[in-house]
């Protein structure tokens, strides 16, 4: 027996103890089962806690996704910088503005001002923006954000009126103020006259008169009327055709910049564009016609027409 005791090992001793404990009764056996039950109960609780903790992360992810969608919608609004020769209907056509130039004007009225024809190179326009509502809150916001632009417009209009007044003073008393008609350009001499024959014209003769002016000279509506067309006219370059209130049509050709849009009403003396050398020309000038219809070939003597309206033509 003592010899067997020498061969005992600590590991066997521990094993014997655990057997002894296991053999003490059902109560002792219940302890491992209770421990196991506790361990299994802890596992689903931990998973549940992790699931609960992960809910805010999922919510944040959903919010980020929604924010990205909103940003994508907002990104459809873009900014367009007005260039030389631009006018609202042209911009609306090129930029595919739904609703045409009227929608473009409504969206940018705070920047453009009360006159849609007064746009200038460098002016920033929003393309695709929703039109402002007429609520007091929106109006007050637009008023505060565009006060500088309106002041600039008022200054520009004041300068334009001053220029018109000085022009009227240099003309005869039978012009502008008394007759409702004025010259299409101020202080210009006539180059090529009406009905001058030549092979360079498809009709065999000159269908209008040419006022010799440098590029960038302000061109004016000879009388009140409605713009029939404003855009590219082939050999005429950039052109504007206005139906005057007396039923005749005034055509302005070779413009470097247009200031009006089709469908827009104009008053006598209002700027409709700037002179230039677009189309088939040998130099900058204004080609001016009076027509009985808006179409080529219905021309009448423009000088005789203006004189019949009391306008002195040099």
Can you walk me through this structure?
By secondary structure, this protein is of the alpha+beta class. It folds into three domains: 2-73, no CATH class; 78-152, Membrane-bound Lytic Murein Transglycosylase D, Chain A (Roll), CATH 3.10.350; 189-308, Distorted Sandwich (Glucose Permease (Domain IIA)), CATH 2.70.70. Helix content is 42%, strand content 18%. The chain is elongated. Residues 15-42, 131-145 and 159-177 have low confidence and may be disordered.
CATH topology of the largest domain: Glucose Permease (Domain IIA)
CATH architecture verdict of the largest domain = Distorted Sandwich
Q: Which stretches of 5+ consecutive residues score pLDDT under 50?
A: 15-42, 131-145, 159-177
Q: Which outline best applies?
A: elongated
| Domain unit count | 3
Arithmetic mean of pLDDT = 73
Q: Bin the helical content.
A: 40-55%
Radius of gyration: 42 Å
Structural class: alpha+beta
| Distance from first to last alpha carbon | 148 Å
The CATH superfamily of the largest domain is Glucose Permease (Domain IIA)
User: Could you state the order of secondary-structure elements as H and E?
Assistant: HHHEHHHEHHHEEEEEEEEEEEH
- Indicate the CATH class of the largest domain: Mainly Beta
Number of helices: 10
Secondary-structure blueprint of this entry?
Layout: H1 2-6, H2 10-22, H3 26-74, E1 78-81, H4 88-94, H5 100-107, H6 109-112, E2 124-127, H7 136-145, H8 147-170, H9 176-179, E3 189-190, E4 209-212, E5 218-220, E6 225-232, E7 238-244, E8 249-255, E9 257-258, E10 265-266, E11 271-274, E12 286-291, E13 299-300, H10 302-308
Antiparallel strand pairs: 1-2, 3-4, 4-12, 5-11, 6-7, 6-10, 7-8, 8-12, 9-11, 12-13
Helix pairs in contact: 4-5
């Amino acid at each position: 027996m003592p010899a067997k005791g020498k061969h005992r090992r600590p590991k066997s001793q521990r094993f014997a103890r655990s057997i002894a404990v296991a053999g003490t009764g059902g109560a002792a056996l219940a302890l491992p089962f209770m421990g196991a039950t506790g361990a299994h109960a802890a596992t689903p609780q931990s998973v549940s806690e992790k699931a609960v903790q992960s809910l805010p992360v999922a919510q944040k992810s959903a919010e980020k996704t929604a924010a990205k969608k909103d940003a994508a919608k907002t990104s459809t609004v873009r900014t367009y910088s007005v260039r030389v020769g631009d006018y609202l209907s042209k911009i609306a056509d090129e930029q595919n503005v739904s609703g045409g130039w009227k929608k473009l004007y409504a969206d940018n009225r705070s920047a453009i001002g009360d006159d849609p024809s007064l746009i200038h190179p460098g002016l920033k326009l929003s393309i695709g923006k929703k039109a402002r509502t007429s609520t007091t809150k929106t109006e007050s916001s637009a008023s505060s954000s565009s006060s500088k632009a309106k002041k600039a417009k008022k200054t520009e209009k004041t300068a334009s009126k001053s220029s018109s007044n000085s022009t009227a003073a240099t003309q005869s008393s039978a012009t502008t103020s008394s007759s409702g008609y004025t010259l299409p350009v101020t202080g210009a001499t006539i180059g090529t006259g009406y009905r001058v024959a030549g092979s360079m014209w498809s009709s065999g003769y000159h269908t209008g008169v040419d006022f010799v002016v440098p590029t960038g000279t302000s061109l004016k509506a000879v009388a009140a009327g409605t713009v029939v067309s404003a855009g590219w006219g082939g050999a005429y370059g950039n052109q504007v055709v206005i139906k005057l209130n007396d039923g005749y049509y005034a055509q302005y050709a070779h413009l470097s910049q247009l200031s009006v849009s089709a469908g827009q009403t104009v008053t006598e003396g209002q700027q409709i564009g700037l002179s230039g050398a677009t189309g088939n020309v040998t130099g900058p000038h204004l080609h001016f016609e009076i027509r009985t219809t808006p179409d080529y070939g219905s021309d009448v003597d423009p000088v005789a027409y203006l004189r019949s309206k009391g306008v002195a033509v040099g």
